[in-house]
Design brief:
Number of helices: 8
Order of helices and strands: HEEEEHEHHEHEEHHH
Largest sheet: 8 strands, mixed
CATH class: Alpha Beta
Number of domains: 1
CATH architecture: 3-Layer(aba) Sandwich
CATH superfamily: Class II aldolase/adducin N-terminal domain
Shape: globular
Strand order of the largest sheet: 4-3-2-1-5-8-7-6
Structural class: alpha+beta
Distance between the termini: 35 Å
Helix content: 40-55%
Radius of gyration: 17 Å
Strand content: 15-25%
CATH topology: L-fuculose-1-phosphate Aldolase
Length: about 240
């Protein structure tokens, strides 16, 4: 994968997350490491929606969170990305946004329970970052998010949002959607009378293996990309 392909994947991820209603105006952002250069990453620009990312306005940043290229403004919360990339050489993409149900669950302080297929994707742990509800605008605060994340796939930022990571942007994108779905299902189950009997640990572990393989992320990312571009094409011709 070259830099042009990587930047196109950021654009595609933005269109997918926007179509899924996860943009939160212009406040969400995602990133991908530069292929062959783990010390730099491409990131969505400040003041743009998920559906407005282009090759020209994307921002190039280093692991200190400094902009070193690209036509757009860098996000003030760039440190979520830079500090996670510093700590996690296995991570090639970071997504931060503010999904309604994930924020609602985080406000309760509850743990996500493996009561649905999307929730099982996080059955190996979904930690909390509890330090602040505020924007993550310093290296120290970004380091706090990275520390709370640890080696997990995602972290709930209490009363604020989520940070989700992946070995690929396909993985991070699909996990972001799955996390919101999982939180929505749990809150619905609790409001509908409570959570009943759960499946045994062996069943959960088997399902976790089946739904967290890399090909699962790619297949579903490609489907949602086709769906987003079909919708975009219809909008342009209507």
């Amino acid at each position: 994968m070259d830099s042009t392909v990587a930047k196109q994947k950021v654009i595609d991820s933005g269109l997918i997350l926007d179509a899924e209603g996860l943009g939160d105006l212009t406040r969400g952002h995602m990133s991908i490491r530069v292929p062959g250069d783990p010390t730099h990453f491409f990131m969505k620009p400040h003041s743009m929606g998920f559906d407005e990312i282009t090759m020209d306005n994307m921002v190039l940043c280093d692991l200190d969170g400094e902009k070193v290229g690209g036509g757009g403004r860098k996000h003030s919360e760039v440190y979520i990305h830079s500090e996670i990339f510093k700590c996690r050489p296995d991570v090639n993409s970071v997504i931060h946004t503010h999904p309604s149900h994930a924020v609602a669950l985080s406000a309760t302080g509850q743990n996500l329970q493996p009561i649905s297929q999307p929730a099982v994707a996080f059955s190996d742990g979904l930690p909390y970052f509890r330090d602040t509800i505020d924007l993550i605008r310093s290296q120290a605060m970004g380091a706090g998010v990275a520390k709370a994340l640890g080696m997990h796939k995602a972290v709930l930022m209490r009363n604020h949002g989520v940070a989700v990571v992946g070995a690929s942007i396909e993985e991070a994108t699909i996990l972001t959607i799955m996390l919101e779905n999982a939180c929505q299902i749990q809150l619905a189950a609790q409001s509908g009378g409570g959570i009943g009997e759960q499946f045994d640990a062996q069943s959960i572990e088997r399902l976790h293996f089946n739904i967290t393989r890399s090909e699962q992320y790619i297949v579903n990312f490609e489907y949602l990309k086709r769906k987003a571009y079909r919708a975009l094409g219809r909008a342009r011709t209507s």
